[in-house]
Amino acid sequence: MDGFGIRIEGLRKRYGAGDTAVDALKEVNMTVAPGEVVGLIGPSGSGKTTLLKCLGAVIEPTAGRMTLGDEVIYDGGWKIGDLKALRRDRIGFVFQAPYLIPFLDVTDNIALLPMLAGRPNGAARQRALELLEALDVGHRARAEPSQLSGGEQQRVAIARALANQPPVILADEPTAPLDSERALAVIRILNRMAQQYNTAVIVVTHDEKIIPTFRRIYHIRDGSTHEEAGEGREIAD
Amino acid sequence: MISLAGRDILHSWGKFVFTGVGLGLLIGATLTMAGVYRGMVDDARVLLSNSGADIWVVQKDTLGPYAEPSSLRDDAYRALRGMPGVARAANVTYLNMQVQAGGENASDVRVMVVGFEPGQPGEPAYLVAGRQITRSHYEAVADVRTGFRLGERIRIRRHDYTVVGLTRRMVSSGGDPMVFIPLKDAQEAQFLKDNDAIVNERARTAANPSLNRPGVPGLLEAIQASQTTSHSVNAVLVQVRAGHDAEAVAEPIRRWKHLEAYTRAQMEEILVAKLIATSAKQIGMFLAILAVVSAAIVAFIIYTMTLGKLREIAVLKLIGTRSRTIAGMILQQALGLGIIGFVVGKISSALWAPFFPKYILLEPGDALRSFVAVMVICAIASTLAIRAALRVDPATAIGG
């Protein structure tokens, strides 16, 4: 690592062409260090989701440069041939809803990623159990997702995002369905995991409860970002 | 790697199994239809085998005695016995009719009444109960599928017969169980008119001046006597001497006796390729329709199940699951459904086959072919769902 988990420079995304073209992202610049959790805040239609999709290698930006760890993954075009492998191995996703696979138990929901990456089943499950213990849901390892509370499900989703030790995690409003206490618990966990696993975390949120917890916040408005310092309020255990 | 399909099936096994059972009943119906066709073919072959004949001699230019009516004089067999290569020749009659059993109130049974000469070709091949016919008249041997019991009295035309023996798998090519009676009785049953008709016929003959000539004594009586006797049979069954070729024996019969002679292969061709050809096509159409319906059901079920998992599929794609893994999951589920359906279908067809009025022959080869067909149909049917799954945009897992 050369000091950042993910760096975005001059990222642009245009939908359509000609008179109907829409510039969803005009000038996005971000840097998130390993172990750091930053907030990405903006009103509806500001380009948050488009940015998340670009960062997640789900849609292709129009211009700009993205660097993940020490590797340029986008520079006017994808520099990585296998985007699925990129998403699987180097980007973790946490969604608004946990979106756990209902027909897999908790352990296998997490172990699935390392397995998809080619790790042996035993090693993948061992990794899953370690993450579950780290997230204080080790006792729910054999449970089905439907048997978990909302907070437990979100912890499992975070564990899944960490399964392949990605350098960056993209969290899309991960606290939206949770009450204040649980929402703050999720952010506390994300902070702890980010530091423990040296992972850069970008949290897209509207949630007023958790915004004061970020040390750095990127505001996005009309497709452009600007950075400001956050309160960095400590979250009590 | 985890079997995603297997886990999904285990997770929602109730829905899966019940769907499989529904599909299985449809597959069972398909297997039964195939069994009906096989049964018809087997009935035809058993009919030929049990007749004990190598050659069927019938009326010229007919496909008798099973596929078309055939009538020939009952003394034709004498001439045939003298033909080179003929070991035995015997008259037989075949007549499909309703036979009443157990008194006036009992229901009719559709049977094929066979007239034969005891100890000659055409006799029931084996008995499962009772004895062969030993008297010249009014005894019968019946196939067990008639439902008749030993000692039961059955009525054929105007005479009552006692069932003295029971046989098995003796059915006509149409599936009607056989009732064997002495040849003379069978000839009467088939060719002799009832008493009123005979009296009427005699009166008409007597009123005809060309047949009732005063100057020719005995003419009228001779003509009337000929009208009340029956000297026709439907076929002569011929057994060929060891070492002789059936076709070589049949050829002189055709040439010199002005009769039609069919070998076993030719008769099988008539029964299988001609007599039941329309039924076979009908069954073939049913099989095709059932296959299409099965495919449509599997496609609909798998498609619906896949639609219910689009969000999970989007997440799987977003976290880097290969398209072939997702396609494999859906394909395996479709094949799993097919396996459940096939097992249920095979068991159900075996369970309900004995209750069908016609013989259902479920051959292992047909089951194997059906299994392959079910797997292919399921694989094809899953393509719609696979297509839907592969079109899912992983971006839909991310809100917006």
Which sheet architecture does the biggest sheet of chain A show? 6 strands, mixed
* Portion in strands of chain A: 25-35%
User: What is the CATH T-level topology of chain A?
Assistant: Rossmann fold
Structural class of chain B: alpha+beta
Percentage of residues assigned to helices of chain B: 40-55%
Please indicate the count of domains of chain A.
Answer: 1
Write the topology of this structure.
The complex is a heterodimer of chains A (237) and B (400).
Chain A: E1 6-15, E2 22-32, E3 37-41, H1 48-55, E4 63-68, E5 71-75, H2 83-90, E6 91-94, H3 106-116, H4 121-134, H5 150-162, E7 168-172, H6 180-197, E8 200-204, E9 216-221, E10 224-229
Parallel strand pairs in A: 3-8, 3-9, 6-7, 7-8
Antiparallel strand pairs in A: 1-2, 1-4, 4-5, 9-10
Helix pairs in contact in A: 3-4, 3-5, 5-6
Chain B: H1 4-11, H2 13-51, E1 55-58, E2 72-73, H3 76-81, E3 86-101, E4 108-116, E5 129-130, E6 139-143, E7 153-156, E8 159-167, E9 178-182, H4 183-191, H5 195-206, H6 219-227, E10 232-233, E11 235-240, H7 246-256, E12 260-263, H8 264-275, H9 277-307, H10 310-318, H11 323-352, H12 364-390
Parallel strand pairs in B: 4-9, 6-8
Antiparallel strand pairs in B: 1-11, 1-12, 2-10, 3-4, 3-7, 3-11, 5-8, 6-9, 7-8
Helix pairs in contact in B: 1-11, 2-8, 2-9, 2-11, 2-12, 5-6, 9-11, 9-12, 11-12
Describe the structure.
The complex is a heterodimer of chains A (237) and B (400). By secondary structure, chain A is of the alpha/beta class. Chain A has a single domain (6-229), classed as Rossmann fold (3-Layer(aba) Sandwich), CATH 3.40.50. Helix content of chain A is 30%, strand content 27%. Chain A has helices at residues 48-55, 83-90, 106-116, 121-134, 150-162, 180-197, and strands spanning 6-15, 22-32, 37-41, 63-68, 71-75, 91-94, 168-172, 200-204, 216-221, 224-229. In chain A, the strands form two sheets. A six-stranded mixed β-sheet of chain A has the order 6-7-8-3-9-10. A four-stranded antiparallel β-sheet of chain A has the order 2-1-4-5, with helices on one face. Chain B has a six-stranded mixed β-barrel. In chain B, a hairpin with a 2-residue loop joins strand 7 (153-156) and strand 8 (159-167). The longest helix of chain B has 39 residues, at 13-51. In chain B, 40% of the residues are buried. The A-B interface holds A 49-50, 52-53, 56, 58-59, 84-89, 93, 95-96, 99, 101-104, 108, 111-113, 115-117, 121, 144, 160, 172-173 and B 1-2, 4, 7-8, 10-12, 311-312, 315-322, 325, 393-395, 397-400.
